[in-house]
């Protein structure tokens, strides 16, 4: 009876522990949303017209670019991978679009150049982006190369290829030529629908599609399974290599979308477009609660993380903060996000251990009674 009494006395303590830990865990899980509210509140007070409709539309239009990249790389990070080549993919895909619109497809044998319409250019560029990502995934899985090293090498290759397409020059005048039938590319970045830019609608649609894939389709569950325990996922029948190739292909496809939108907004393509954009995308994903160790993350969290990074960057610019200080502040935010992520992981493990102990106590009490 004394043994049972000791167990019984420990039950309230465990419940109190669970309540306290549960509250802290809830706050950690909601950290991105809390950060978003605090940032918007701060800039609403310190920056005039920060919440004005016009200002918000412009800022969300900027955020959409980072959101495209972040949404694409979320699956990669959930599988415990990384893709450092998305910024370079953005730049190269924009250059390819610029080449097709301004130079066309030259056929030396016939002495002519074919200028494809926008309805051909866009799908072709998206296909190239997806193939670049798939190539990353194939190298990583086929030769067991670390994702960091593979995508770092790919980043340099793609950035060099973007320079080679024009000798480092810009492709201007991407509005096309009516006589060639290739106009309309600029409308992707400047067009509006129901009062909002196309880029914002594209961001919403892409987020909904990727969220549906993550939550409703077997592919999404396989991605999480690989990130949680790759060996166990493989033993359970998941075709790990194929899933990883698709994951990187999605990342490349989303980078191509961003490249098209950026070039369309600028009505010009420059090989340096997208430089360091991968850092903002990774920061948004980590801020959104996706674990760098894999197996945990949400699309909604990534989207909110992109808004946090976007509002922070634009708010600092509107306050007149130096670009150098902006880099320092972004770096601090990223480090804090990683630290909080590690805290959340440790607390979840501790909560799991406490829950297991509580179940053992309950089972022992039932058995003894």
UniProtKB/TrEMBL annotation:
Pfam families: BPD_transp_2. Its main location: membrane. It is found in: Cell inner membrane. One of its GO terms (molecular function) is transmembrane transporter activity. GO terms for cellular component: plasma membrane. Keywords: Cell inner membrane, Cell membrane, Membrane, Transmembrane, Transmembrane helix, Transport. The chain crosses the membrane at residues 23-45, 51-77, 107-133, 145-164, 192-214, 245-268, 274-292, 299-318, 324-340. It is a multi-pass membrane protein. It comes from the Bacteria. Belongs to the binding-protein-dependent transport system permease family. AraH/RbsC subfamily. This is Sugar ABC transporter permease. It comes from Pantoea coffeiphila.
């Amino acid at each position: 009876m004394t043994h049972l009494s000791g167990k019984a006395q420990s039950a309230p303590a465990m419940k109190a522990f669970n309540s306290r830990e549960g509250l802290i865990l809830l706050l950690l899980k909601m950290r991105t949303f809390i950060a978003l509210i605090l940032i918007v509140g701060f800039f609403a007070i310190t920056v005039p017209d920060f919440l004005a409709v016009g200002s918000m539309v412009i800022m969300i239009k900027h955020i959409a670019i980072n959101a495209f990249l972040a949404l694409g790389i979320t699956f990669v990070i959930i599988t415990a991978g990384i893709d450092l080549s998305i910024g370079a993919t953005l730049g190269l895909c924009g250059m390819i679009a610029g080449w097709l619109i301004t130079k066309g497809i030259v056929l030396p044998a016939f002495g002519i150049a074919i200028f494809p319409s926008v309805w051909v250019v866009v799908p072709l560029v998206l296909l190239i982006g997806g193939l670049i990502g798939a190539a990353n995934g194939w190298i990583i899985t086929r030769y067991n190369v670390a994702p960091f090293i593979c995508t770092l090498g790919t980043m340099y290759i793609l950035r060099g290829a973007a320079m080679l397409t024009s000798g480092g020059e810009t492709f201007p005048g991407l509005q096309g030529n009516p006589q060639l039938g290739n106009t309309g590319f600029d409308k992707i970045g400047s067009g509006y629908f129901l009062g909002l830019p196309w880029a914002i609608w594209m961001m919403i649609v892409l987020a909904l599609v990727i969220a549906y894939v993550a939550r409703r389709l077997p592919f999404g569950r396989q991605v999480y399974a690989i990130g949680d325990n790759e060996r166990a996922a493989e033993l359970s029948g998941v075709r790990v290599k194929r899933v990883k190739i698709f994951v990187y292909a999605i990342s490349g496809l989303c980078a191509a979308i961003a490249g098209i939108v950026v070039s369309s907004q600028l009505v010009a393509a420059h090989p340096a477009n997208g430089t360091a954009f991968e850092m903002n995308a990774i920061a948004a994903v980590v801020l959104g609660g996706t674990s760098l160790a894999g197996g945990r993350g949400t699309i909604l969290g990534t989207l909110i993380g992109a808004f946090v990074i976007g509002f922070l960057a634009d708010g600092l610019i509107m306050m007149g903060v130096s670009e150098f200080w902006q880099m320092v502040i972004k770096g601090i935010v990223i480090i804090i996000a990683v630290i909080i992520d590690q805290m959340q992981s440790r607390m979840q493990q501790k909560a799991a251990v406490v829950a297991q102990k509580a179940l053992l106590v309950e089972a022992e009490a039932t058995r003894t009674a």
